[in-house]
Prior knowledge:
Layout: H1 7-17, E1 25-31, E2 34-39, E3 46-47, E4 51-52, H2 54-73, E5 80-88, E6 98-107, E7 111-120, E8 128-135
Antiparallel strand pairs: 1-2, 2-6, 3-4, 5-8, 6-7, 7-8
Amino acid sequence: xxxxxxxxxxxxxxxxxxxxxxxxxxxxxxxPGRIAVQMQVGDQHLRPGGTxxxxxxxxxxxxxxxxxxxxxxxxxxxxxxxxxxxxxMRKPAAGQxxxxxxxxxxxxxxxxxxDALIHSAGQAGPVARASMTYAIPPA
Length: 139
């Protein structure tokens, strides 16, 4: 699998296409078939009980896999999530950054399938696991 976009291109794409989340997600690593994205956790990501909310972890997984797919197909903003399964495994530490490591399992002409593990800084083991399928817009 050959990359069509590098880390700066992905950051520029997010800044221009989704300015509402600019500065929330940072690509730490990108390689063919792999990506790691970090999310700095703030008060807006917390829920009662002193933990990070499920929607915040979903957003991290979704953005991570979206960027992984775009890195391989180019800047196609209309690639969309068609299926998602998210397993919450451990309570993440509030106030600690989350990192999502994702793999591209299959990249077809119309669908892309990926999985991801979300880790909380300073905590052993993943806090969540995601499996997502994206529809790729026609050329």
